[in-house]
Amino acid sequence: MSAIKKIAVLGGGSFGTVLANIAASNGHDVSLWVRDSDQALRINSEGANTTYHPELQLSSNIEASEKLESVIKDANIVLIATPSLIFENIVKRITPLVEEGAHIISCTKGIKLDPFRSMSDIIKININSSKNSVGVLSGPNLAKEIAEEKVTGTVIASSDELLINDVKETLSSDTFKIYSSDDIQGVELAGALKNIYAIICGIAESLKVGENAVGLILTRSMAEMSRFAVAKGANPITFLGLAGMGDLVATCTSNLSRNFQLGMHLGNGLKLDEAKLKVGQVAEGIRTLEVIKTESASLNISMPLVDSLYNIVFNDASSKTFIDDLVNNPHEVDVEFTY
């Protein structure tokens, strides 16, 4: 057993809750930041986050609070699992609060525009890198299955070996296996980009396109993801691993995926706002779609599936058009994992 650490988890949603519970079940002291006092009170009194995981009995080592200062105080590891929309605001708020030497880990799969920034970029812009190390946690991590203690793998990416080792010691369990990577850019882009293609696969499921077509969509999705990531300096080999292919397959084929659900609702004829209401939780893919559409156009990167989905979501194109666009696209090279 490693030394007991103070772990701060920012975000009491589905993923933040299960991460907090793993760390707490491993004997660490966990402070879970949530956005309002009522939610904190319910979690502390009921020993469960009934909003997201009513079936999961939380460890008594977790204390929820809406007070960011007390959650961050003395934390050795800070796991940020908030929606991307508020991520930057939260990072700015914790910047004067984090302890020197604390590890700051992004667990949020999103990207921001104007300028183009990943979540780890936002951390590095605001947090003094000479005092705090930065990492990214990403993989095929459907929170409901983690809560049910089904076997899951994830990737911790960082240039700091101590951070990688500390995260592994803190979050590893008999059912939660952690692999390491030094490609922060690749791991992070894979986690964000795959949400776009999960929406497309949800549309495909609603249209009953068939298993062969799904195989086509997944592999072309991988080609687009890696093409974009290489242009941004990532290692294409990263996309063959858990953070890439692993997360893409899990998210693009599971009804547990919020983005997949969103795509199914869109394919069944619902407008975007109606589909979001049906899903009920934040689906990051739409925000990421807007960012990647703009950035790929500015860099002249061919991403036909992104273009098709954008036209479906924002230009009222038929949900069936992405199949026609895919088949009629003149780009016919199969594997493109080149530097």
How would you characterize this protein structure?
The protein has 339 residues and is an alpha/beta fold. Helix content is 50%, strand content 13%. The chain is built from 15 helices and 10 strands. The chain has helices at 14-25, 37-46, 68-72, 84-94, 119-126, 143-147, 161-171, 184-207, 211-231, 242-252, 258-267, 272-279, 285-299, 304-314, 321-328, and strands at residues 6-10, 29-33, 62-65, 77-80, 103-106, 111-112, 117-118, 133-138, 152-157, 176-181. The protein has an 8-stranded mixed sheet, sandwiched between helices. A two-stranded antiparallel ribbon has the order 6-7. Helix 8 packs parallel to helix 11 (258-267) and helix 14 (304-314) runs antiparallel to helix 15 (321-328). The longest helix has 24 residues, at 184-207. The mean pLDDT is 93.
User: Residue-averaged pLDDT, rounded?
Assistant: 93
* DSSP summary, beta strand count: 10
Task: Give the helix proportion (percent range).
Answer: 40-55%
Rg on CA atoms, Å: 20 Å
* Separation of the first and last Cα atoms: 42 Å
Runs in which pLDDT lies below 50 for 5 or more consecutive residues are none
Largest β-sheet summary = 8 strands, mixed
**Strand fraction:** 5-15%
